């Protein structure tokens, strides 16, 4: 959930060793803003990043308090029993999202890129990113809580 834009080399090495050993990662909401200068993390692990500066004519944006319908698009242990649900949450637009991710959930809100949860592209580790979860409105949503719980269990190989 953190959004530290960059890690020093010892922390990068520790995190890379953790991921390469096949451990799980669940990155929530602002985590798409973390480590944006670390290509391996962005492209091989999380599979996306927030564009603070324009790249290729594109820059990311956000809007608070959007009522939206979230729809499950991939049957997976992380999405089991979620179906479609309503949530009041922040939306992100113009993220860089890898074509290698497996999209789990989509938003119907036009101020969103659509994909709001996915499985990251890393081959050894189980990685889940969920864009949802800005504030108490999301945290109190039972379907959001179910999503996070199932993502943690799957990433931790407890599914």
Would you mind describing this structure in some detail?
A hairpin with a 7-residue loop joins strand 6 (102-107) and strand 7 (115-119). The strands form two sheets. This protein has a six-stranded mixed beta sheet with strand order 1-8-7-6-3-4, with helices on one face. It has four helices and eight strands. The two termini are 22 Å apart. It is α+β, with helices and mostly antiparallel strands and 159 residues long.
How does the SSE layout of this entry go?
Elements: H1 9-20, E1 25-28, H2 39-46, E2 48-49, E3 61-72, E4 84-93, E5 96-97, E6 102-107, E7 115-119, E8 127-130, H3 136-139, H4 142-155
Parallel strand pairs: 1-8
Antiparallel strand pairs: 2-5, 3-4, 3-6, 6-7, 7-8
Oligomer: single chain
State the order of secondary-structure elements, H for helix, E for strand: HEHEEEEEEEHH
Question: Could you tell me the radius of gyration in angstroms?
Answer: 15 Å
Characterize the main sheet: 6 strands, mixed
Q: What can be said about this structure in brief?
A:
This protein is an alpha+beta fold.
Q: Tags for this entry?
A:
28% strand, 159 residues, 24% helix, two-stranded antiparallel sheet, alpha+beta, 6-stranded mixed sheet
């Amino acid at each position: 959930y953190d959004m530290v834009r960059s890690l020093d080399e010892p922390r990068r090495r520790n995190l890379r060793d953790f991921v390469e050993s096949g451990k799980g990662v669940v990155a929530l909401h602002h985590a798409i803003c973390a480590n944006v200068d670390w290509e391996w993390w962005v492209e091989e692990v999380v599979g996306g990043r927030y564009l603070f500066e324009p790249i290729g004519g594109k820059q990311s944006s956000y809007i608070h308090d959007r009522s939206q319908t979230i729809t499950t698009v991939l049957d997976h242990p992380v999405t089991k029993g979620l179906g479609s649900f309503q949530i009041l949450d922040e939306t992100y637009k113009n993220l860089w999202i890898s074509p290698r991710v497996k999209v789990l959930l989509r938003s119907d809100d036009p101020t969103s890129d659509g994909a709001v949860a996915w499985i990251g592209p890393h081959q050894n580790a189980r990685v889940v990113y969920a864009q949802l979860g800005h504030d108490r409105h999301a945290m109190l949503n039972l379907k959001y809580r179910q999503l996070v719980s199932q993502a943690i269990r799957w990433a931790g190989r407890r599914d």
